[in-house]
Design brief:
- The longest helix has about 35 residues.
- About 25% of the residues lie in helices and about 35% in strands.
- The chain has about 400 residues and is an alpha+beta fold.
- The protein has four helices and 25 strands.
- The protein is rod-shaped.
- Strand 20 and strand 21 form a beta hairpin.
């Protein structure tokens, strides 16, 4: 009896087929991953250059200044007061009016002073007649006394009476002049040309020559001054800068920074303030349009020099760990330039190292821009905001 031939177990055959299928699946996944991860240089488009706004660096005037706060003062302030007493009859100006020298401002009731003038004139006329009669009597007594017709005492008395009446006439004449002057003072006129403040009296008020409050205060506004204080170090800078002549000074609005007037430095005080360690300095301003008013607070710029320098817009300046830098456009790519900045003024940064005249800088820096990025200058529309625009007058 023959034995049966042994065959592979069914579970072994299934296990072999399972491992074969798994290996084929893994191979397919590996091939697919390699194909997906391999860069396709033929289909990927190149990244376009970043469009940026640019400007060319060229010399421009950015003044070297000392900036501080100051107060506008009037070179002449006059408190107009009455020089005679009486009732205010008319007020001929309004609050804040511009007046000229000699202009009639107020009138005081002249009737009492006119009567006083007439009284003094009458006394003068009377005493002149008496003096003339006394002089005539003294002249007639003189030869009679020499001839013995009258005694010497009578002649001397006549002469003294004539001299006394001459003195009375002189006194009367002084009284007339005083009364005439008081009458003239009833017309209160402007002693200077300037701008009036608030009117302190109204018609009907009684004023006196010794009253403490003025009728109105006048300030010269056409040519004003600015007073400010500088510490010792800045005073030394001013003295060095003034070696070539008076320094220019600019007054700006303390809030908006708008230029108001340009003048000259003219006065340095002769001693420093012990409490603050500063020196009082003053400048003159022509102020033809009356942009500056006495008592006004302004920003003062003392201009030490106005030589051409290399300057760039402050907005293009970047800050890094190694200090300020800027992106320049060179051969179609952005490149970082480390800078040394001397000062900043009116949105401009003065560069002393890192740039040359003719370099093209990138004004606005996009977030994706970095060193070596491909860039393209955007077309300019109108006038470019270049760093070389004219300085502010």
């Amino acid at each position: 009896m023959t034995e049966p031939v042994p065959t592979a177990a069914p579970d072994q055959s299934k296990r072999r087929r399972h491992w074969l299928l798994a290996g084929l699946t893994a191979l397919v996944l590996i091939v697919a991953a390699v194909l997906l991860l391999r860069p396709n240089h033929e289909t990927a488009p190149p990244r376009p250059p970043i469009e940026v706004a640019t400007a060319q660096v060229r010399p421009t005037v950015v003044p070297d200044v000392i900036e501080t706060s100051g107060t506008i003062i009037s070179p002449q302030t006059v408190e107009v007061r009455p020089q005679t007493g009486g009732v205010i009859e008319r007020v001929l100006i309004g609050d804040g009016a511009s007046v000229r020298k000699g202009q009639l401002l107020f009138t005081i009731d002249p009737r009492p002073l006119r009567s006083a003038l007439e009284q003094a004139s009458g006394a003068l006329t009377r005493d002149r007649a008496l003096a003339a009669d006394a002089a005539d009597s003294a002249q007639r007594y003189r030869p009679l006394a020499r001839e013995g017709a009258v005694d010497d005492k009578t002649a001397i008395t006549a002469r003294h009476s004539a001299e006394a009446l001459r003195g009375t006439v002189m006194l009367d004449r002084a009284q007339v002049n005083s009364a005439r002057l008081s009458l003239a003072y009833t017309q209160v006129r402007a002693p200077i040309s300037g701008r009036a403040g608030a009117i302190q009296v109204k018609p009907g008020n009684v004023v006196t020559a010794d009253m403490t409050s003025p009728l109105v205060t006048l300030n010269v506004a056409g040519n004003v001054q600015a007073s400010f204080a500088l510490p010792r170090a800045q005073v030394d800078q001013v003295k060095r800068g003034a070696g070539g002549g008076p320094l220019a000074v600019e007054a700006l609005d303390s809030i908006s920074g708008k230029p108001l007037a340009r003048g000259q430095l003219y006065f340095l005080d002769n001693s420093f303030d012990d409490s603050s360690g500063t020196l009082t300095v003053r400048a003159r301003f022509p102020n033809p349009g009356e942009q500056l008013w006495p008592g006004q607070f302004v920003t003062i710029r003392v201009i030490l020099s106005e030589a051409p320098v290399l300057a760039i817009p402050e907005s293009s300046l970047q800050q890094g760990q190694q200090g300020p830098y800027v992106y320049v456009l060179a051969n179609g790519r952005a490149a970082i330039r480390q800078l040394t900045v001397a000062r900043m003024l009116d949105g401009k940064a003065v560069v002393t190292r890192g740039l040359r005249a003719g370099d093209t800088i990138i004004l606005t820096v996009p977030n994706e821009l970095h060193d070596g990025s491909a860039v393209r200058a955007a077309p300019q529309r109108g006038t470019a905001a270049a760093p070389a625009e004219a300085p502010r007058a």
